[in-house]
Design a protein that fits this description.
Helix content of chain A: over 70%
Shape of chain B: globular
Largest interface: A-B, 24 and 32 residues
Shape of chain A: globular
CATH topology of chain B: Rossmann fold
Radius of gyration of chain A: 19 Å
Bound molecules: adenosine-5'-triphosphate, magnesium ion
Strand content of chain B: 15-25%
Strand content of chain A: under 5%
Number of strands of chain B: 10
Structural class of chain B: alpha/beta
Number of domains of chain B: 1
Mean pLDDT of chain B: 91
Oligomer: heterodimer
Chain lengths: 307, 259
């Protein structure tokens, strides 16, 4: 009994910190969801775009630039990276996943080049989280409010966008590219722009993370993709994905729930090294579920992929 | 209106399984014409439609729509001029989107898509009205995702989408072939009604000789990538199903002799 209480109290103590972290990482989950669900473009770029955003922001912050400049630069860099992945896929007919792996591998070198070393402290430099009119700078509550507000703003803007004439066209590209093209939609522009936007969100997440933790590291993206996927699966299980709003809310809800679950597991004594294995098995289970439900016969690989 | 000049397309050129899909095909259609395209499997009917829509890039030859040379134009640019319904109901609609959203996509085919609200009350009312013409109850399912509709309902929706926005040219590729007789009849009637009401220039591929006799003002028979036979005007009115089948028979005999 005492042990359970112990676990519980150490979990509760971490709730605010974890919440702040998850609201920042929600943007990576969004960056994974958009290509995967809205564009039918399973994409791995986020694993490289997240540290890219972090490195770009880190270098600028360390040079004394304003956090807004750092975030803007991260967004642009992320957007460019996503555009490259989409272009590689479209132009050379390379599978989206392979295009993403290529991009993420190349980004590792680029990130190192940008920083000039493998990690960089921005501790004590100006950060978005110091600007809060409420709460103490740097405390979880401040981060929760700021990251949450940005998240809400992004959610509303994306929702409005996907309901516009142009946004509906972009969704059609994800649903049926041949049909979209026959309806006068430029599939290239929509795909490149959409994947670019998604990577920009991943980079945004990286730039916020650097400001939150006080340092940038080229390895900060390691495993972010599988965490993001797990968060997305949880989010979709909770919100569903029948409507645009539900689909857009899934990354945010999923990130919050997933990282609390991880924190709970750690509090319960799961050794941190096992975390990736557990996450991987969880994602595998979620992906396998439809085929398990359908019966013993293995589903078509592509179908399972897309679920 | 539509002008195809010696269109040629060879698949797997220079290889053992070389296939000549279009062999110097020429065709011209006047504004308001309703051409029915017939011909045996592999004659090049779909290839011709693909060449017009831009889905197929010609090896040589030219395609003109209303005096504009569209030969080098990508599919999405040609879409401003033409609409298309495929044989496969899955191809013509965006499955994960709603009926109303699909209507919106087709509605804006020839317009610039802007950053303003897509589905508004005016549009929804208009879509409702247009779908009601089918009498399939689709007008009450505007918010249903298309993947939940039956094949026939999807195809009917594809047709309403295609004739909306008054395309300069309507291309129909065996668009009732995958439907049960009753739904096929509904879709065919709706097609004829729309084509007549909007005076659409149309090319319809069919294997149904009765349809070829009943509808349209011209019959184009394709064979081995060429227009083998053209029947128009008064002659078309006199043509019976038996006559058309006769033309197929002649062709088969010739093929037998040749082989
Ligand atoms: N993408 C392709 N790759 C290779 N060959 C093709 C392709 N598309 C068509 N062909 C070939 O071109 C020829 C004409 O095909 P097409 O689909 O135009 O015929 P069709 O008249 O539409 O026949 P059907 O009545 O069966 O629909 C056929 O020999 C076919 O095998
Ligand atoms: Mg065909």
């Amino acid at each position: 009994m005492a042990m359970i209480q112990d676990i519980f109290s150490s979990f509760v103590a971490l709730v605010p910190v974890t919440l702040a972290q998850s609201l920042i990482l929600a943007f990576v989950v969004l960056g994974i969801m958009i290509p995967f669900r809205m564009l039918s473009f399973p994409d791995l770029t986020s694993e490289g775009a997240f540290p890219l955003g972090g490195c770009v922001a880190g270098v600028l912050l360390a040079a004394g630039q304003s956090p807004l400049t750092a975030i803007a630069a991260a967004l642009i860099a992320g957007f460019a990276a996503g555009c490259c992945t989409a272009y590689i896929h479209l132009r050379f007919r390379i599978h989206t996943l392979l295009a993403g792996i290529l991009m993420m591998t190349m980004l590792y070198s680029i990130n190192l080049r940008i920083m000039g070393r493998s990690n960089l402290s921005v501790f004590g430099m100006e950060s978005l989280f110091n600007w809060s009119p409420f709460g103490q700078p740097g405390f979880p509550s401040t981060k929760i409010v700021i990251a949450g507000a940005i998240g809400l703003l992004v959610l509303v803007l994306l929702y409005l966008y996907f309901k516009t004439e142009r946004g509906t066209g972009v969704r059609a590209v994800g649903s049926n590219p041949d049909m979209a093209e026959a309806q006068g939609i430029n599939v290239w522009t929509a795909t490149i722009g959409g994947v670019g936007l998604a990577s920009a969100f991943s980079a945004l997440s990286g730039s916020l993370m650097v400001q939150s933790q006080g340092f940038a590291d080229v390895n900060m993206g390691l495993g972010i993709l599988i965490n993001g996927l797990a968060a997305l699966m949880i989010g979709e299980a909770i919100t569903g994905k029948q409507t645009v709003l539900r689909q857009l809310a899934a990354p945010f809800v999923g990130a919050v729930v997933y990282y609390q679950l991880v924190s709970l597991c750690l509090a319960a004594g799961m050794p941190p090294p096992d975390l990736k294995l557990a996450t991987g098995l969880f994602v595998l289970l979620m992906l396998a579920l439809p085929s398990l439900k359908r019966g013993r016969a293995p589903g078509a690989a592509r179908e399972v992929m897309r679920e | 209106m539509l002008e195809i000049k010696s269109a040629r397309k060879v698949f797997f050129k220079g290889q053992a399984d070389e296939k000549i899909a279009l062999d110097g095909l020429s065709l011209s259609l006047k504004t308001g014409d309703f051409g029915v395209v017939i011909g045996s499997n592999g004659a090049g009917k779909s290839s011709m439609l693909n060449a017009i829509s831009g889905a197929l890039i010609l090896d040589s030859g030219k395609v003109q729509i209303n005096e504009t040379d569209v030969t080098g134009m990508p599919v999405y640019k040609r879409a401003a001029k033409l609409a298309r319904v495929f044989q496969d109901p899955m191809k013509g609609t965006a499955a994960s989107m709603t009926v109303a959203e699909n209507m919106l996509l087709a509605d804006l085919r020839s317009q610039k898509r802007r950053l303003r609200q897509g589905l508004n009350a005016t549009r929804l009312a208009a879509y409702k009205e247009r779908l009601a013409l089918l009498g399939l109850g689709l007008e009450n399912r505007l918010d249903t995702r298309v993947e939940l509709l039956s094949g026939g309902q999807r195809q009917s929706l594809s047709l309403i989408m295609a004739v909306g926005g008054e395309p300069e040219l309507l291309l129909l590729d065996e668009h009732t072939a995958a439907l049960d007789p009753r739904t096929a009849d509904i879709v065919m009637k709706a097609t004829v009604r729309a084509v007549e009401a909007l005076k659409l220039t149309t090319l319809m591929v069919t294997h149904n000789m009765q349809h070829a006799v009943d509808y349209g003002n011209r019959i184009l028979m394709l064979d081995a990538g060429k227009v083998r036979l053209e029947i128009g005007g008064e002659e078309k009115k006199q043509t019976s199903v038996a006559d058309l089948i006769g033309h197929f028979a002649v062709k088969t005999d010739r093929m037998l002799l040749a082989s």
